[in-house]
Amino acid sequence: MALQTSERQALTLRLPPELHEQLRLYAFLTSQSINETVTGVVAEWLKEQGRTAMLDAAAEHGQQTHRIALDKLRDL
What we know:
Layout: H1 17-29, H2 34-65, H3 67-74
């Protein structure tokens, strides 16, 4: 489902000049805007690698947050 412009959040992204040029060229050659290209790449990454990375980060955060309790449970 495509989002309306009013439903989107602005994001400033700073890229090295060579990456910006590659992105601009890719967007031009595929007849997409840079925004459409980046949105698609981010969505795909979040669906694939991002999901695993988020789960790993959540597990690590939970372990760090509850380290004392987990250490006490280990000793039971």
